[in-house]
Amino acid sequence: MDFVAGCIGGAAGVLVGHPFDTVKVRLQVQSASKPLYHGTFHCFQSIIRQESVFGLYKGIGSPMMGLTFINAIVFGVQGNTMRLLGSDTPMNQFLAGAAAGTIQCVICCPMELAKTRMQMQGTGEKKSSRKEYKNSLDCLACIYKREGLWGVNRGMVTTLIREAPGFGVYFLAYDVLTRYLGCEPSDSYMIPKLLFAGGMAGIASWLSTYPVDVIKSRLQADGVGGVNKYSSIADCVRQSVRKEGYMVFTRGLTSTLLRAFPVNAATFATVTLVLMYARGDDKGPNECEPAQPSHQIQQQTQTSSL
What we know:
Structural class: mainly alpha
Number of strands: 0
Order of helices and strands: HHHHHHHHHHH
Helix content: over 70%
Largest sheet: none
């Protein structure tokens, strides 16, 4: 039931956060010489005006499909790693999170590649006259036919560099915050505290790895329209800094941070309510043990939070 709750909570997080993710990707990969958008809110307005509100949800099929597998990987790897490490300490939480982040890249990288390509498709068009990809699966199939397995895993190295420390920071920050806030079972504010801890942990995680995410998005969007601009990670970094300066590594950061907190709030709230309903918990959060919600919910919802 915990796994099912994690998946449902993750789905809620994706629904809430995907519009912000679309804006983030559009800002990260747009041309510096001819920018379509002048900021986060202008990007939101332009997408809705030109592509309707559904434009904000382009590519949502990919994270929705990958959600179950990623939650299973994160839950299993993080739990087993904590058991192997023996003690529940902040440092062990970081190591277990990093291990989970590393392993789940196998699913996360192709999923985000399809998501990015779908989000870039038909930019500025309400109804695309020609759609290269019908859906996320078709997108991956087309990439595989053209570029093989290497193409499907485009951006794997940058995904790994982002996910391993990112997950580690998330688990560490969440553990430290829940300990500091004192999520006791008798505390009527336990759930708000858990939501706050999850939201802030998500923000801390993004801040720690955001520059890598910019490069990952550019590499995965490279080739849209049949033109490849980057030959490697180093080449992408060099060209980006030369043309746009070091501020390029903050492109889309506002929408990412705006997304991070509500996504975690939606995810944690949904997981908590599903678990309480499934267990027939009529007394609310007072019956929850403090150790279980903070770690079990954290394990199951990590992916969608990030």
